[in-house]
Amino acid sequence: MPRSVSRHLLSWLVLPLAGLAQIGDKAGEVQRPIVPAAVIPPSPALSPEEELRTFKVAPGYRIELVAAEPLVGHPVAATFGPDGRLWVVEMKGYMADLDGSKEDQPQGRVVVLSDPDAAGRFRRSTVFLDGLVLPRAIALHRDGVLVGEPPNLWFCRDRDGDGKADEKTLVASDFGVRVDPARPQLANPERAPNGLTWGHDNWLYIGAYPARLHPAGEGWRAEPDDFRGQWGQSLDDFGRIYHNSNSDQLRVDLVPGHHLLRNPHLGGRLTGTNFKVATDQSVWPIRVNPGINRGYRPEILQDHKLKEFTAACAPWVYRADLFPADAYGNAFVCEPAGNLIKRNVLTPASARVSAAPYYAQAEFLASTDERFRPVGLLTGPEGALYILDMYHGVIQHRISLTSYLRAQAESRGLVSPHGLGRVWRIVPTGPAVAATPSLASLPDLAVVAELGSSNAWRRETAQRLLVERAPSAAVVEALVAMAANSSSPSGRVHALWTLRGLEDAGPVPAVAQAAEDIGAVLAKAMRDLRPLVRVTAWRVAEPRLARAEATSLRSILRMALLTERDPDVLTQLALSGTATGDVAFDELTARMCLRAAEPTFLTDAFLGGLAGRELETLEGLLRTPALADRPLVLALARCVLAERDPARVGRLLLAIHALPEEVRPAQLALLGGLAAHPAVTAKRPVWLPAEPAMLAQLAKLGPGYPTAVGKLGKLLVWPGKPGLPATTVPLSNAEQKRYDAGKQVYGGLCAACHQPSGQGLEGLAPPLAGSEWVNGDPERLIKVVLHGLRGPIEVKGQAYNYDMPAAGFLSDAQVAAVLTYLRREWDHEAPPVAEETVRALRSRTRSRTDAWTAPELVGR
Questions:
Q1: What is the tens place of the pLDDT at every residue in 310-319?
Q2: Positive or negative CA dihedral for 405, 406, 410, 413?
Q3: How many other CB atoms are found less than 10 A from the CB of residue 100?
Q4: Is 106 within 8 Å of 164 (Cβ atoms)?
Q5: Which pTM value belongs to this model?
Q6: Which residues 6+ apart lie within 8 Å of 286 measured at CB?
Q7: What is the DSSP letter of 443?
Q8: How far, rounded to the nearest angstrom, does the alpha carbon of residue 68 sit from its chain's CA centroid?
Q9: Rounded to whole angstroms, what are the CA distances from 85 to 79, 81, 110, 113?
Q10: What is the enclosing helix (H) or strand (E) of 131?
Q11: All structural domains of the chain
Q12: Residue 262 and residue 612 in contact, taking contact as beta carbons nearer than 8 Å
């Protein structure tokens, strides 16, 4: 088929896909256009002034241009500095043509937009950093800027004061995969880390990335976190993280994923994360939408317009006072494929959040310009909502591009011009919006006052500035006073987190001297009438609760565990109640969870902080035998079994056997629940030094017990046990722990492409379940992980033109763990991989700089 398709042919064009001309084509699928050419309006590139006339904005609001080319081009991420300047990431190399042939060229930049006369429009653009390949993320920190440029996350500084970066320090080398036009499957910009977001707890949270970061002196400390979202993330007043994926407009982490990941006995469960907030995925464009990747499918369009989200991104919770009061806490979501922005009302209930469209069959902002591509939202210092408009005809990446969309783009001239871009802001109708004071020019005591601002950008920026500075005693005193007495709940919240951030930063004399006052403020906040303040107090106090001498705070904790009723605070107490490390408080927290209206939701939140103390908590609960049938008790028992400690497994069986006769049904159900363990199975049993005598004792308790004990016995093995499989050697307890650790690595690093089921992702990643590569020679598998693999490759008899990026940044232990997991998951029976094997092979291949090919590995 010729690259140029005339417009009059488009209405009847049918694309046979036997040859799969584009990576996004599906075998056997006919791509027949369903939008008549006669109803498709022209889509020329418009000037900013012309584009402005295409917008339909909700009543009560107006949209204003604040920047456009040549000041900015292809903006994809941005953040405001404390001085009001806007730092913008330009992804200029993205889809400059339909083959993405220039993606590897260093065309990306970070520019700084300024408004010298405070007139509400940026007039000056300074290039801070250039020569970047598809940069995608930015955050400010101290005297520098974090910039995400796969595969690297950089910290960049301007040391000589000329406005340009002259120092780049590597923070992480696993920040996605660098693109290569010759190897299209190697990297997918639609599924790479992004959305650098400072949390209320002073940690840096990253979308589509398995870790969070915290400053540590001149370096950074990483901690495992759940892999969330696709493009963009935002916070609410509780600090919960909202995110989404292309066809699912809004989700939230009700429970911090990093907390759950602390307990390996949970088996990687992340209950309470990735909670679906919005069930209504409908959108209401104001123009026909033929230029959608799968716009040939009838279910995608309605009246020739996009029916539901297909490119949802950049969720943003608006938290400022410039908009009318009913907009505070609303969630705005971009849909660049439909040229619109949706507004949702968020409603909290029972520690959950739900979303509903604010407008019936209409959108907050929509455009008739097909090139309007909103890909980012942020709140400005004055409270306006800013929009990053990539302004490009084709936003579908080549890795998913279909022949249908290629024909659309070529026939209607959507590919060029390239490098345009706009930044808009939405403000209420009425008088011009006044400029606000620059935080950068305020003295520290005035910055403390900003913690109580009704604009979340101002209070969160103020918190960051204060944590990054060495405060005086007067500043600490002001922080303590605000945390204790501010009339603004958010002011108290951010004052508490600022104090915690200063404590975490290291020895600060003024903070150390105020330690007793800070403790008193926390005690007061724990008893505040407002749930937001109580939730924050418990989170901030966790390190103090771990100190045995914190008797006053522990006394308040004990009372809260007995009397608290608010669902949000109960959730936080489930997370924080185990911070003492004291089994007595563990049991109190468990009993609080049992009393709560949502025990299933709270169970994993509680277990996340309990690693290694599950048995003691279980024994305490079973002193009340009537609790034996509760799901939390079964969850505790399963954690003990997953711990794989023979002595503790023996104590578990003893505790179950000791239950009195009147709870026999619950006792029997508990045994049955253990036998159905999701992680401990007959193929991954617990090794014991000898047959536990308690099994035989349990089997004698009555009808049904022999069957239940028999099933449980299949999960336990010991030397000389009859019926041990002769072909497959069960994992030892140490190997099983390696497997469990590998499951977490897989979930954070590999599952997005290869899927949790191991079945792979069509067009992106081949299956691992049943793969001869996984179950074959472990050395070639190690080589693939360390150095990557360049296709073509054959898996299970099917050819894949697939490139596997290197993951050599993983430690030897992590590589051994994830490969052990792969070789024993999905009914695989291959031997585990030892850390020593990985270490030796890494040493032998240390000079390797290129990915392996299948012939090299098969023929070695």
A1: 999 999 999 9
A2: positive
A3: 21
A4: no
A5: 0.89
A6: 56, 339, 340, 363, 366, 367, 368
A7: -
A8: 31
A9: 9, 5, 13, 6
A10: strand 124-132
A11: 54-428 (2.120.10.30), 733-858 (1.10.760.10)
A12: no
